[in-house]
Amino acid sequence: MKKQFLLHLVFVAFAFGLAVVLTLPVIGFVYGCIEAKGVGDGLDSIFPRIFIGVVCAVLTTFEGGRMPHDFGVTAYTDLRHHIIPTFFSLSTLFYSTILLFLAFLHFIRRRKRQS
To answer: Structural domain tally of the chain?
Structure first.
């Protein structure tokens, strides 16, 4: 019982750690993709939006949750109020993915033992 609890605690810690590392880049990427100006609409603007999203993900991470408006650093958009909901959403997503993966592995092992 104690071994299962410790294993469960490791999975929770891994999910929380991964969420801590990826929270700011995800916020910046989503903000960059949504607020991309001058790229147009339609299917031909997908790759420029993704590129701007990646640039904004890096800048948001370096700036600690503040995104410069015009890259001249005259004004900032504060994205820090999105950190807590994004953190909990990502940690829940990662933890449920880990549990589903482990359930799948358990199913495969049990099926191999039966045959």
So the answer is: 1
